[in-house]
Amino acid sequence: MADIIQLLPDHVANQIAAGEVVQRPASVVKELLENAIDAQATFVKLIIKDAGKTLIQVIDNGVGMSQTDARLSFERHATSKIRQADDLFQLHTKGFRGEALASIAAIAHVELKTKREHEEVGTHIIIEGSDVTSQEVVVTPTGTSVAVKNLFFNIPARRNFLKSNPVETRHIIDEFHRVALAHADISFTLHHNGSEIFNLPESNYRQRIVNIFGTKTNERLVPVKEDTELLKVSGFVVKPEYAKKTRGEQFFFVNDRFIKSSYLNHAINSAFDGLLRDGTHASYFLNLRVDPKTIDINIHPTKTEIKFDDEHSLYAILRSAVKHSLGQFNIAPVLDFDRDATMDTPYNYHDKGASVPTVEVDRSFNPFSEKEQSKQSVSFKKESTAGWESLYVGLQSDDEFSNFDTNMQFESDASTQQIFDEDTNKVVTTFQLQNKYIVNTIKSGMLIINQNKAHQRILYEQFLQDLTVKEAVSQQLLFPLELEFSTSEISIIKELESQLAQTGFVFSKLSKEGVALTGIPVSASETSVFKILEMLINDVQNEVPDSHFSQTDMLAKSLAKSLAVKNGQSLTQQEQEHILNSLFACKEPNVTPFGTKTFITVSSDDIDKKFN
Question: What is the domain class of 10-200 according to CATH?
Fold first, then answer.
């Protein structure tokens, strides 16, 4: 029998490795940005076109590579970061496996230009699907420029699995944020389709956060700092009142490397225990410094998960550090409720001594002297009552005021009339059970409607009609409503601006700092607009719709869920009947937009069985 095991060709092995390293354009962005940082660059420029599907280019001013290193960098397991296995536990760089450029070159057209500082000319290499088509000398600035074009050109199945351009762009921006936040001492710029999205100059950590997430973020940050032999914590957490429904602003950096850790995230949540609203998550930007020997980075292809030697101690230190910061800056509530703030000693009294009171005494005072007795007799002397009749001279009789009522005219109370005449003999057909269900009688028994789920179906079909057929009616606001969002959230609102306008939202301003609304849907209240848009952004980030139709459907679902009548809300008789009639006027009254039941029926036979 012939042997059946054989070695894979290099180009096939590279494509298989690319499946682990390069999952989408954002994966290429991450690898190239980390290579630029390892090259000691102080300025990094990222250029993308068509969400990275057409072009991803990273330009840096790092140390560059020689001609030999440039050619060898595209070979598998070729790296300058480690020499032996023990080096894996002393890592101070981003990349170390030597698979990034080889994997990228296997599934794209790659063009590399690089030059070292002391050399006059650099190296220009062009690779198409692991095949080097050109290598020549070129005049180029010091540093490295890597351009990745036509990603997945030789794997069309993988290219078809990519999401829409807005979704892939958001993933690229997320990776850009993670790298830029970890290295505030490096300047970064991001250009997409010829327009500048981010321009982040070299700054401190707090300013870097503000430059990415907006100027209003500065007043929301609470500094966290703790130094121990095991762990050094620095960074910021966001005040509890600004907690969001999404987890987008949660950043852990271990030795300047972004990681995901549900265990450490639980430590933050426990520190915020009792301070967050239901359904919201704490936001944080925390840098952790540990001994490289105590962590293992090489457990995940994307290097976003790290194994710690002593997780329990890190958990306790991190939790206490965050809790201490919240208490230090008066974010956590005071336990002594009877404390009177007016009794607190002011800070400027710290070094001030006590003053001795002085008492002034009139030593010449004699209460028994004739002068003092004459003063007392004058003060108690009664006034004369003679001539009291003169006080009433000039007053006239009451005849003058006898015609008072006829001369004065009073404004009568406005008569209020009801628009609809009340029918006292009207039969009540529905009633509300526990402010949650609407109960109605039918021929076969009883109908029980969940008011929240039924209203979701009603609003869902209404918004779908507004988005696809006609524009909804909008209620105009007396004063513009200004709302603040982060840069990534603003980009999502811009994508949905035209569709939101069809549902009744009228935008007067849409900038990097926030939005201003002059009109909102009729079914929405002014105080609930921020929560509605926040939930919509959360749904977009989680469901990541691909096509226009699914995005329209997602928008209608999100708005219907936000604006539907909540369980526990008392409804009038007219409101109950309106929900009942509107529900059965829908095309699909049986289920909600999310596939759950809107009502159930209980037959009279089922009721009879309960009494057997």
Answer: alpha beta
